[in-house]
Amino acid sequence: LTFDKNLNKWKTKFDPENYKAKNFSEEVIDAKNNKVVVKKGEKINFLTAKKLSNEGLKEIFVSSDSLFGKFLHRDITIGEDTFKIGTELNETILNKIIEALQTQHLK
Question: Whole-prediction pTM value?
Fold first, then answer.
């Protein structure tokens, strides 16, 4: 997971397993060419997601909002704050991470 400060979005791996009968609350953008591959509000299922993957979709851009409720996969230290593996992401934590990434204070 990396942050693109020009787009203000996160680049992450596209995993068809995460897309089982899902309505999208935001566009899914191919990180390779910045093209919209799933429109906001569109519903796709695993087979459609698998087809996208087979056609070359490997990484996508997502908003910070789509990360709310997800969990850290490693410890992150920002200044005096340490967020342990398993910490649930919220707006405050994501904003601290983005700020640290932009100022290179992330460990």
Answer: 0.72
